[in-house]
Automatic annotation (TrEMBL):
Cell division found in the keyword field: no
Molecular function as annotated in GO: sodium:proton antiporter activity; xenobiotic transmembrane transporter activity
Record-stated family: Belongs to the major facilitator superfamily. Bcr/CmlA family.
Name the record gives this protein: MFS transporter, DHA1 family, bicyclomycin/chloramphenicol resistance protein
Superkingdom of origin: Bacteria
Cellular component per GO, a single term: plasma membrane
Keyword annotations from UniProtKB, A to Z: Cell membrane, Membrane, Transmembrane, Transmembrane helix, Transport
Pfam families: MFS_1
Residues that span the membrane, as ranges: 45-64, 76-94, 100-121, 133-155, 161-183, 213-231, 251-271, 283-302, 308-331, 343-363, 369-388
Length: 410
């Protein structure tokens, strides 16, 4: 393909993957105003974020078999239309309960972008190019947190938080046009893929029996849940504890997002010298160390606003390295079940993010401890899973070889 076609595909796939991150980040500066307008509290408004993450978790499992059965584009169009309708519902809501419900359906529609973008990478690019392409898509995704909260803060200040959702609906409408005119179809519909519950579960079980998928999807899911602890707690930490304005919060969010942009570019160059497994192990180790220092620093009051932002910047640089490499290694063993594998991987990531965000909300104590503790825990547990999982698989392989040699001798 030409360089122009390649750029278009990366931009469209990246835009699809950013539908949900944009939907999460853009309305964060509006939390205090939403709470005031809907006569509720910020912790209840945070449930709309949790509802969104639960919707993504459920929706991705549903879209996996649909993408394998009907091809990539038909389920994609259907999901994005649901997203547009739910976004309009969010804009018109008059209660926090209705907002939570509309956010759930917004996620059900929007998460098709996450699943389909990953499946299309496997369809359209060779195995040796996928980690690089995932890295480029992660770069596009990483730009969204720089833009979304900043734009959301100014939109909320100028027009009100409702307009955030109208703008999101308009963005997705433009993405639909780009998909129709510029994005290749990818894998064609496969009538042999059954949508009966028994067959769908069987497809998922085939994926889950693959050790490489299980290790890297589990470790990668927890590692990529760390930013959700930051997302869930950052508006309260920065706006209520450190008393920054909506616009200032948007700029802080944008600055921290730059950490991920730099690391995605670094990943592009590191892949020329190191393999994905080496990069993941090193990154999780350094994130675990930095995360521990974050917890200690907040607990002992070492940090002011600026040093806290600096430490979080250092921690978040790892997200641009773990995400694309764990995605590539998770999906590498599959051809026929790519859609189901993408769905399970994405569902677990968002499910882990939802759990982490709920924990941050439950542990809310007017300090930054719940946020940074969950960030550190995600990296530490991911590192343990990676080493234990690989050691177990390697031991099983060695035992199988020994048994084979003994049977030959006998």
């Amino acid at each position: 393909m030409s360089r122009k076609q390649y750029s278009y595909m990366i931009l469209i796939l990246g835009s699809l993957a950013t539908v949900s991150p944009f939907s999460i980040d853009m309305y964060l500066p509006g939390f205090p105003r939403i709470a005031m307008d809907l006569n509720t509290t910020i912790d209840k408004v945070q449930l709309s974020l949790t509802g969104y993450l639960i919707g993504i978790c459920i929706g991705q499992v549903l879209y996996g078999p649909l993408l394998d059965r009907f091809g990539r584009k038909t389920p994609l169009y259907a999901g994005l239309v649901i997203y547009i309708l739910a976004s309009i519902g969010c804009a018109l809501t008059s209660s926090v309960e209705a907002l939570v419900v509309m956010r759930f359906f917004q996620a059900i529609g929007g998460c098709v972008g996450l699943v389909s973008s990953q499946a299309l990478v496997s369809d359209l690019f060779t195995k040796d190019k996928r980690a690089e392409v995932f890295s480029m898509i992660t770069l596009v995704i990483a730009v969204s947190p720089m833009i979304a909260p900043t734009v959301g803060g100014y939109v909320t200040s100028a027009f009100g938080w409702n307009w955030v959702f109208i703008i999101l609906a308009g963005i997705v409408l433009m993405i639909i046009g780009a998909i129709y005119f510029f994005l290749p179809a990818g894998k064609m519909p496969d009538p042999s893929v059954s949508l009966k519950p028994q067959a769908v579960i069987g497809s998922f079980m085939t994926v889950l029996r693959q050790p490489q998928f299980l290790i890297y999807a589990t470790a990668g899911g927890l590692a990529t849940a760390a930013p959700f602890a930051y997302i869930a707690g950052s508006s309260d930490v920065f706006m209520n504890i450190y008393k920054v304005s909506e616009q200032q919060y948007g700029w802080i969010f944008a600055f921290l997002a730059f950490a991920m942009i730099g690391s995605t570019q670094l990943n592009h160059f590191l892949l020329k010298k190191y393999n994905s497994e080496q990069i993941i192990k090193t990154t999780l180790l350094y994130q675990s160390v930095v995360g521990t220092l974050l917890v200690l620093g907040v607990y002992y009051n070492w940090y002011n606003l600026y040093t806290l932002i600096g430490m979080m910047f250092i921690f978040l640089t790892g997200q641009g390295l773990t995400g694309p490499n764990t995605s590539a290694l998770s999906l590498a063993p599959f051809k026929k079940h790519t859609g189901s594998a993408s769905a399970l991987m994405g569902s677990w990531r968002m499910g882990a993010g939802a759990i982490i965000s709920i924990i941050v909300s439950v542990l809310h104590n007017n300090t930054a401890i719940p946020m940074v503790a969950m960030m550190a825990a995600c990296s530490l547990v991911s590192l343990v899973i990676l080493f234990v999982g690989n050691a177990t698989v390697n031991n099983s392989a060695r035992n199988s070889d020994v048994e084979g040699e003994v049977s030959v001798l006998l």
